[in-house]
Known about the structure:
Layout: H1 15-27, E1 49-53, E2 56-59, E3 64-67, H2 82-94, H3 103-115, E4 120-124, H4 127-142, E5 146-150, H5 167-171, H6 182-186, E6 188-191, H7 196-206, E7 210-216, H8 231-241, E8 245-250, H9 262-265, E9 272-275, E10 286-290, H10 292-295, H11 314-326, H12 329-352, E11 358-362, E12 365-369, H13 378-382, H14 386-398, E13 401-402, H15 419-440
Parallel strand pairs: 3-13, 5-6, 5-7, 7-8, 8-9
Antiparallel strand pairs: 1-2, 2-3, 4-10, 9-10, 11-12
Amino acid sequence: MIDFNEPVGYPADAPASQELFDRAAAIVPGGVNSPVRAFRAVGGTPRFMVRGEGPWLFDADGRRYVDLVCSWGPLLLGHAHPEVVGAIQAAAARGTSFGTPTPGEVDLAEELISRTAAEQVRLVNSGTEATMSAIRLARGFTGRSKIVKFAGCYHGHVDALLAAAGSGVATLALPDSPGVTGAGASETIVLKYNDLDAVAQAFETHGEDIAAIITEAAAGNMGVVAPLPGYNAGLAEIAHRHGALLIMDEVMTGFRVSRSGWQGLDPVDADLWTFGKVMGGGLPAAAFGGRADVMSKLAPAGPVYQAGTLSGNPLACAAGLATLRLADDALYTKLDATAAAIGQLATKALAEAGVPHRLATAGSMFSIFFADAEVHDYDDARRQNTAAFRAFFHSMLSQGVYLPPSAFESWFVSGAIGDEALEHIAAALPGAARAAAAAES
Ligand SMILES: Cc1ncc(COP(=O)(O)O)c(C=O)c1O
């Protein structure tokens, strides 16, 4: 008998991916080079992708998916955009790395400065490097040691920031990480997100020792949780009143939610910002930047050391610059409209299937919490029904829609999503919503 609640599509197993995963698992811990890729939160075989084109991903079993992960944010223009590929090819033909300053670094730095409130920037290779360096700089500048971070915010796998770090860590249910020493974490004060009173209280007690507050400009690593109105501005006010710096982590939001990132939607008087993802156009590039008087404390201009063999790599700069040059107001309008359309379709399908949920948005970043109350912090986020998400995820996957394999991640859209991809998503959602409903009951 046909079960009409069971969405028809790709089989649950994926033999070619499974074979690759088995080979990988024998020699790479967990079979992956970044934990959330392993599908542990949703179960099943992680799909090994072999090609991307516009909004589509193609896996080793020859299946096609609409991509709503976009490499976890970087691919603002979709896969293999001809102008980005062309820029990388041209740069590669000129040489892959020189270990000297190059014109592309200046061009990319100027592009970042023109879009943001940062007065100076330093290019690095990953978001982790950017936040690690920003923290060292804040400590060096203020001569203080403590850092305030918020539960559920992820800033990369920096020792001092791997406390209540959301996303991959939440997915794997590791409250902290072995290998991070007590000393490494003891200078970190973890507070509830979106709770200014808690911040004010922490500063009453530790104000003289706090070098900086670091926060995601809008949280995307516990699912999407936007700052409440005035929250980021309140952080700036409290930090400055006590002589501390505010580090606004825009690794995820930067150049994604507007041409200048979250600061384009909610400008705040931060001292340092961190960037990554989109600014590398799919290659490893990241940056930190901010006030010139703070940044000038960095070596070789100042005493705070920071360096990198491949920092400002010519290929990464070319890819980032090509991406940003195409990221104009029209693209951001399209991204907003695409995200809103998918969010509405998902909400409608879930409502029709009677699944409690909340659509959470921060510009064009969004996620669905399988919960029946608003989500403002990490505790709220953890109250969601992850079993319902798992069923929803696998149904979408079997119907050719690739969602983040965790309930604690943002969904990302690209400018390459057109009518065909949207219709594909729309067709998949009702079945996935019914699968989520079945898992709920
Ligand atoms: C807000 C934020 N900061 C920092 C990072 C770390 O960046 P990377 O993975 O490039 O080290 C991430 C990664 O997802 C992030 O979302």
